[in-house]
Amino acid sequence: MEEQIGRDWARRLKSKLNITSLNTMQSESFAAVESGRDVLLFSPTGTGKTLAFLLPLMRLLDPNSQEIQLLILVPSRELAQQIEQVARTLGTGFKVNSVYGGRSGVQDRLDLKHRPAILIGTPGRVADRFRRDDLNLDEVRYLALDEFDKSLEIGFEREMKQIIGSLPNVCQRILTSATGSTAVPEFVGVIDPEIVDYSAERTGGLRIRGVEAGTKDRLATLKDLLLTLQGKPGVIFCNFKNTLFEVSDFLSDHRIIHGCFYGGMEQLDRDQSLITFRNGTHQLLLATDLAARGLDIPEIAFIIHFEIPIHLEEFTHRNGRTARMHREGEAIVLQHKDQRLPQYYRDMKLDLEQVAPQQQTSVLLPEFSTLYISGGRRDKISKGDIAGLLFKQGGLTKEEVGVIELQQNCAYVGVTREKAYEVAEKTTNTKLKKKKVRISVL
Q1: Do 371 and 415 meet the contact criterion of CB atoms below 8 Å apart?
Q2: Nearest one of 262, 293, 300 to 278, comparing CA atoms
Q3: Distance CA 178, CA 74 (A)
Q4: Nearest CA-CA partner of 228 in 320, 358, 71, 391
Q5: Are residues 325 and 297 in contact, defined by beta-carbon separation less than 8 angstroms?
Q6: Do residues 35 and 73 share a domain?
Q7: pLDDT digits over 67-116, tens only?
Q8: What DSSP designation does 235 have?
Q9: Are strands 302-305 and 234-237 parallel, antiparallel or unpaired?
Q10: In angstroms, how far apart are the furthest CA atoms of the chain?
């Protein structure tokens, strides 16, 4: 890896992200971007596309510039946050900011007052900032459209045209997608691109199996299935929000802890649902296809199709949440014998398995709870500051502190469930750096 990306960057990847080598797709993408040509990158969800285009582009940035140099457009708020986190974690010294709907416009203006070298955002919010703010866009040399087909699918074409039309000096365009079947619109301006296509490949071991559910007891079958899978993190997919609400109520009635993720949720609720899933406060995420791609939810052991999607593309994207980066995983489809099925699924000819009724009534409680801290990166607070407070004043051991997620104005920490309220009481109204913070159990 050192020979390809240089010793300094190789050392940074190892120390910051614990990555000792690039996979084949990332290596080929790195070389393609380094060539200076426009690049189309097609690779399944979970194969490391973010690093594949972000790493070589960051190496091309000018540290002496005081303006935006790299613009990354994404279809969702969560993907913007994910890319921002990766860029910050690399610790290059370049200023990075993300803007997206559901976030305060005042916060955007504060962040953009001192121009970031890398600006990440959803097309709607980026177009809005371009209209409202006096931004010098002459130094934007690099444009990345991550999951560009999804941005087009959800109706951002007009905003994307406006944004791209306002960038006079773009010299390189990088477009990514999880599938290789999407046509590139002319307004993007791609010229003679180098194509890196890994769309037909999966890097993990995915097993797909069908589970028989009666027409009247699908929820009971789901409960029995979850009890056999307890201890493993997974995502349950529904086609519609109404179904999701029905399933959520059922799981709550049976004391099965879970989070929800769907369009129409408040941004704070969406963020917290993903945070508590990542840190192990709950191990089940109940979601619509909004969570099928572009989310930072690693280590998924299984996904369940409570409802079968109509199109193969949605089925593929859902399955891409598991069996990622050389790991094993399974996709489980709940269906009854007389169910009308899409042709792509009938072609799979899966044998239906039976799930034995379980005597246990609810899954075990997760190991962690989540603490909310009312201070973050903007207050010069670091993860080390938070860990130190929990160790010294909270009395926790290293094993009792889980994932720490640091945001601009707050932080979230996974701590062992049995001590969460006690620790919150011991540490709230304490000063971290110069800010007095409130700490509570989420």
Answers
A1: yes
A2: 300
A3: 13
A4: 358
A5: no
A6: yes
A7: 999 999 999 888 898 899 899 988 888 999 999 987 888 889 989 999 99
A8: E
A9: parallel
A10: 66
* Sheet bearing 411-416, strands edge to edge: 401-406, 411-416, 368-373, 439-441
Task: Give the closest residue to 169 by CA, choosing from 136, 204, 194.
Answer: 136
Phi/psi of residue 19, nearest 5 degrees: -110, 120
259 and 176 belong to one structural domain: no
Give the range of the structural domain holding residue 102, as residue numbers without chain letter: 2-197
At 152, is the secondary structure helix, strand, or coil? helix
Q: Is the dihedral of CA 220, 222, 228, 233 positive or negative?
A: negative
What's the Cα-to-Cα distance from 79 to each of 10, 73, 370, rounded to whole Å?
24, 10, 22
Closest-CA residue to 29 (of 9, 59, 55, 3): 55
In terms of Cβ atoms closer than 10 Å to its own Cβ (0-12, 13-18, 19+), residue 169 is: exposed
DSSP character string of 271-306 = HHHHHHHHTTS-SEEEE-GGGSSS-------EEEES
Chosen domain end from 134, 165, 197: 197
Whether residues 265 and 185 fall in one domain: no
Phi and psi at 184, nearest 5°, equal -90, 120
Q: What is the pTM of this model?
A: 0.73
Separate counts of helices (H) and strands (E) for the chain: 16, 20
DSSP string, 301-353: -EEEESS--SSHHHHHHHHTTSS-TT-EEEEEEEE-TT----HHHHTT-PPEE
pLDDT tens sequence across 388-401: 999 999 999 999 99
Domain count, the chain: 3
**Distance between alpha carbon 136 and the CA centroid of its chain, in Å?**
30
With respect to residue 360, please indicate whether it lies within any of the assigned structural domains: no
Q: How far apart are the first and last CA of the chain?
A: 41
